[in-house]
Write a structure and sequence with these properties.
By secondary structure, the chain is an alpha/beta fold. It has 11 helices and 8 strands. The chain has a single domain, classed as Aldolase class I (TIM Barrel, Alpha-Beta Barrel). The chain is 46% helix and 11% strand. α5 runs parallel beside α6 and α8 runs antiparallel to α9. The radius of gyration is 18 Å and the shape is globular. It starts with 9 loop residues before the first strand and ends in a 5-residue tail after the last helix.
């Protein structure tokens, strides 16, 4: 059984997808990046996610990226999204094949059923029968309506045995609703402005865009918070806010450039959305990286 059945709180670093200039996946750079992510000290990796551009990847590419993450995971655990295919039967096959990659947990998007709790609960309950692994939910903005209520999440925990959710409501109220009904599951944060307050309320996980280039920032915060050092936790939280603001414009290329500056040369700041960072943005990120290095926050 997956290690995630015992330890599913903590930091889940999101995995970026590096490309060659022709926008084919650079798997060699990805393997180097996976090793770098493990070196950040986090406990979990999220291999196929929004930051990975999973909606722009083929099933074959998604499965290979998951396999490579497992190959390089070290002492971490790996989760990956497994219901991106369009039809029910193709999703069943996707779940089976993603489970076979060796990942430790499966992630389901809410698949556009956010405003239909009965349909979502039935859908998740049926689809999870095709994997023996722990299942997590993801309010993926790429498949709207994606947000679910606290009441719906409580049903998913009670009726489907869900282990946690990547909450993307980005509102204090939405986060609090889920925490109130979480039971033994983990509310996993994607929203940085409310991160510290959410942890005070009972959230115990993070799946957020800045983890793609700065997992160590979050691991430092998590350790300080769990050790009860609230002053240090607040300092670490403030550092996370600086990182979040630094990459907000031009994500995910901005995160890729920061990874490149930290030593993964094959992580070019390009994506399949054809986003281009201006020379000014590149200089701004370079200056931020220099500041982080000077203050012992980055390599």
């Amino acid at each position: 059984m997956s290690q995630l059945t015992e330890n599913y709180t903590g930091i889940y670093s999101l995995m970026l997808t590096p490309y060659h200039d022709d926008l084919s996946v650079n798997y060699e750079a990805y393997e180097e990046y996976a090793d770098w992510q493990v070196s950040q000290g986090v406990e979990h990796l999220f291999a196929v996610c929004g930051s990975s551009e999973m909606a722009e990847l083929t099933l074959k590419e998604r499965l290979k990226l998951a396999e490579l993450t497992v190959k390089h995971k070290g002492d971490t655990t790996v989760v990956a999204t497994a219901n991106m295919e369009p039809s029910w039967f193709s999703q069943v096959e996707e779940v089976k094949r993603m489970t076979a990659t060796g990942v430790d947990g499966i992630v389901f998007t809410t698949k556009g059923f956010g405003n239909d709790p009965d349909r979502l609960v039935n859908y998740v309950g049926e689809l999870k029968q095709f994997t023996h692994l722990p299942v997590f939910m993801y309010e993926f903005p790429g498949l709207k309506p994606h947000l679910i209520s606290g009441e719906c999440y409580g049903r998913l925990v009670r009726e489907c045995g869900i282990y946690g959710i990547k909450d993307t409501t980005s509102t204090y109220e939405g986060i609090a609703e889920k925490i109130a009904v979480k039971g033994e599951s983990c509310i996993i944060q994607a929203n940085m402005p409310f991160l510290f307050e959410a942890f005070k309320m009972g959230a115990r996980g993070v799946m957020a865009t800045p983890t793609a280039c700065g997992g160590a920032f979050f691991q430092r915060f998590f350790e300080a918070f769990m050790n009860g050092d609230m002053a240090l936790a607040e300092q670490r939280y403030n550092e996370i806010i600086l990182l979040d603001n630094a990459i907000d414009s031009g994500f995910n290329c901005s995160a890729k450039y920061l990874v490149q500056l930290q030593g993964v040369e094959g992580m070019k700041p390009i994506n399949r959305g054809h986003l281009q960072l201006s020379s000014g943005r590149l200089q701004s990120l370079q200056s931020f990286h220099n500041w982080c290095v000077a203050n012992g926050l980055m390599e």
